[in-house]
Amino acid sequence: MKYYVIIFLFMATGFGSYAQEDNQIFTIYLVRHAEKQVSADGSKDPSLTPCGQQRAESLAGFLRQVNLASIYSTDYTRTRDTAQPTASAKGMELKMYDPRALKDFAELLLDRRQDVLVVGHSNTTAVLAGLLVGEEMGSFDESIYNRIYQVVVSNTQGRLHILESAFVCVK
Predict the structure, then answer these.
(1) Which residues are within 8 A (CB) of 40 and not within 5 positions of it... i.e. 6 or more apart?
(2) pTM of this prediction?
């Protein structure tokens, strides 16, 4: 009996930590900003609609139990406002990234090997997800707000899961 306890302790402590270091897994969550205001003047930096604000809060709830190391956003009102409820709930500051330098940003995310949230746009979110897993992906329709791209990376292999949020706007 004593022999089995020793083997179990070895496997639970020494072997388990060795396996974890060798096979580090991290997850990158990517979302498009929530619903934005559409203005007659064609503003390039609109804020969120009331439904967009609710969606941003819903995202924070979805990620409540996820231990994030960083939260990234492009430097636009709609992306910052989508990311901010999650950052506030976790006591974190937003980090800005350049949506015109997605390849460099993908390399940075993969090098850091951390669980993170990235808030982008309809023409960058899927493209970045594709770069993270080595697949070519394009932009998606501007009417789509409910996708959560989950990239799970183990060692050097990434796997993409596209989730649809169950969010419903309460008017």
Answers:
(1) none
(2) 0.86
The encoded tokens of residue 125 equal: 């979110």
Lookup: tokens for 42: 């064609």
- Structure token pair of residue 162: 């596209």
H-type helices in the chain, by residue range? 2-10, 16-22, 50-62, 77-90, 102-112, 125-133
Residues 171, 169: Cα–Cα separation, whole Å: 6
CA dihedral 17, 18, 19, 24 (to 10 degrees): 80
**Angle at the Cα of 115 (from 113 to 109), degrees rounded to 5?**
45
Given pLDDT bands bounded at 50, 70 and 90, which one contains residue 23?
A: low
| Range in 5-9, 36-40, 116-120, 133-137 with the lowest mean pLDDT | 5-9
